[in-house]
Fold these 2 entries.
Entry 1:
Amino acid sequence: MNFVPITLPSHCVTYGIDASTVCIRPLVGKDEEIIVQLGGANTSKKIKSLFESVLQGIPDIGQITAGDVKHILLWEAINSYTPSYPINYICSGCLHQQQVAADLNGVNSVELPSDYSQPKRLKLSLGEVSLRLRTLQDEINLAKYQEENSVSYLFSYAQCIVDSDMDIVQRIEFLSDLPTKDLSLIRRFFVENDHGPDMKCVVHCVQCENEEEIVVPFQFQNVLENATKS
Ligand SMILES: [Zn+2]
């Protein structure tokens, strides 16, 4: 199969590998067998099996950052199908509602700073916390937790706390008692280190020739349907 090099927005800094060794191939029929199953609670699990087959050079696929996951899915949408993504758009200039095709090749991928390292130690009003970026495996664990529990908000952050002295229950308890100002600091860590495609695209109004940048509501599971439109 045709594997080609891919540059990931995380620069692979959290994988402990040489970023230049990572390769990817476009999708084939057997991959669509997985794509048609995407959308439910098992989506992240299915994406992991898809990546195990289309990627080379990353030993632990579960450790792929959430930002890289978005970048890889966008790469597959563009290179295995089409960069043209149909969206409903209301022009802010003339309010004309229309169907336009966003060009996914125009989407910018935000890179993680190349000197990024983790865990990142964060000073809180009550002590300190060490954090790491969210991964594909975290998404899989979160989906499982959501099935078994009614709430998962604090769990999603507790997963990314690096502390060998606390198990996941203790980490959730730690967050439960934390002042909301400290929780904001934790959230800011994820915002500041968010990477991957920003999904912003320039579109042109067919009626008034207005040109504006919008955020494309990209859903990877729509690739099959979109590819049959032209
Ligand atoms: Zn217009």
Entry 2:
Amino acid sequence: MAVPLFLLLCLAAFQTTASADLLSEYAHHAVLDPAEKMKLFWTVDWDAETVSFAVEAETTGWVGFGFSTGSGQMVGSDVVIGWVKDNKGYLKDRFADQKALPPMDKQQDYELTGFQESGGKTVLKFKRKFDTCDSRDIKLEQGVTKVVFAYHTEDPVSETDIKHHVFRGARSILLLNSMDKRDINETGWSTFPLTTKNVTVPTKETTYWCTLLKGPQLKSKVHITKFEPIIQKGNEGFVHHFLLYECHGNFVDKDFDQGVDCYNIANMPYAKCQAASIVAAWAVGGEVFYYPTHAGFPLGSSDSPRNFLLEMHYDNPENLAGRVDSSGVRIYYTDQLRQYDSGVISMGVKTDEWHIIPPKQKSWMSVGYCTEKCTKSIMKSTSLPEGGVNVFAALLHTHLAGVALWTKHVRNGKELPEIARDNNYDFNFQDIQILRKEINIQPGDELIHYCKYDSMDRNKLIKGGISSRDEMCLDFIFYYPRIPNIRYCQSQAFGPSYKLIDKYFPDVNVTSVKHNPLTNMNIDWTDEMVADFRKYKDDVKNVFPICGITNLTTIADSKNPDLTVPIPKITDPLPPEKSKCAQANRASWTNCRERASLTCRFCTVVWHVMRCDWCSLVKRYGTTDSLYHMYPHVMCFDFNANY
Ligand SMILES: *[C@@H]1O[C@H](CO)[C@@H](O)[C@H](O)[C@H]1NC(C)=O
Ligand SMILES: *[C@@H]1O[C@H](CO)[C@@H](O)[C@H](O)[C@H]1NC(C)=O
Ligand SMILES: *[C@@H]1O[C@H](CO)[C@@H](O)[C@H](O)[C@H]1NC(C)=O
Ligand SMILES: *[C@@H]1O[C@H](CO)[C@@H](O)[C@H](O)[C@H]1NC(C)=O
């Protein structure tokens, strides 16, 4: 047995070396599949707008890798297939137009930059532009990117004779918003774990387990610099994601460590923590998180949390019994205090029963506002020389029905670059987006958070709430300098529900501001009712600001216009992103009438040889409808039709 063992060790050592080299060569990496058969390494060059990749696969045959829109299907994905044979590397840009060998693109946009085959592994290195201007390539954007991958154990005979894969998969990654951690010095950092304590994973498909945990005993203030997941060996398939919340308040010993099913948390003394600010978040495939070197999350200061609520999501689709888990998160901190304390504010729609989404809707938008009045009051005196706060990361969050979400930034009516966007939201992959450049928010700025939902698979209305079948519409922004005791800047609108009740259910009484009676009625949603509700929602002109503290305690409050503020108006929208590609390539002309609901941002009106700005036309002529009547031949050039 000695010889095989020796060989095995050699092989193992060799393999580790290959990965270790790639780890230092590239800024980011991700293991693509649970068995770690394929790994991805990459580096983003923002100036050249290119990404360099290395794909490592446990095969000496061909390797496939690419980008998919949406669900991770092979059909419709932009892929490369390559291999190493007789010391030569092969790689071709292809497009999977059907369930067959993806044909090669006429325009080859992936450049093979290196290759290696050794120790039973193949490494292919290649490079491409964010936007190749080829309609058969997928544009690489900020937010979640779905990657697809595959391999075979044999090299192909030729570029047109490639055997069907023996291994394939898909997963989400943050390609352009990952942390570059090559220059971080961790000397002198301390750590403590926050984990569940031998939880028996319930024999049901989905469990959210909520555990109250004590933070470390600290003599003085420290800064959290990093956190990373601790996943108990063997339980990788069960541990799906976790959120760590701050917990303020007083608790007794028996509240700690045991935990409860989060569905039953309402009566626990720590129930409120679930609505508090998030300290750390991780989901399947997520990575380690580092704070920027000039900021850290403070512990041991007067308004820092001393306790934490760990919300662990377990996935047990096979209903396996008796699985015990102690997974969680490891927090790293330093007493070498950094320049700024950081904090997290959640923006968007207040999570309560007045945030509702009718069933069977392909596309439904919810919008929450962090209003001028609120930012004026909470951000007025900070220690930044330029004033306000700087945002360095964002965690976009909805539950199962969410498909896309983004946050706009407005100053005196002028729209500034977006804070964050995710056009391919994946509930099963919620990682923190690192902003490419920090964004300064000034007192008086306004933030508008949009969430797009698909409720086609629901028969009942979806209400705002903490269960994953309920919905949320939030953006947790990570910022500095910390504003003590402020955890949210959100809004709520009661009008749409009240109007719907008035028209369709006049006998129903609202009895508490905490309870929307629509949420537990058996409603037969007619098209008319949905259309009315959509209109009531789109007509909202004033909202209740939820600015750290809420004054809404009575039904009279929820009907009191004096407690509302006007929603932000964008008078000067962001011009459409200029495409670097020849326009003909992206031509997507649509009749304006069909596009009437588009916001200004995505359209430029073109007719004859004149090029006009859609928004200024709308401003001049009123609605898009009247504009259409005036110029029936006006066509929209659709840059990025998302809303
Ligand atoms: C990291 O920091 C420590 C002490 O702060 C220093 O001694 C060490 O040389 C640093 N390491 C690197 C690689 O810069
Ligand atoms: C889980 O139980 C085992 C066996 O009783 C024990 O050794 C271990 O410390 C427990 N783990 C935690 C995190 O409590
Ligand atoms: C609603 O309120 C009215 C007036 O207070 C009352 O007469 C009626 O019985 C209430 N209806 C229900 C269903 O509670
Ligand atoms: C809301 O409550 C705060 C604190 O209790 C109070 O200062 C403020 O005046 C209230 N606002 C309104 C509009 O009632």
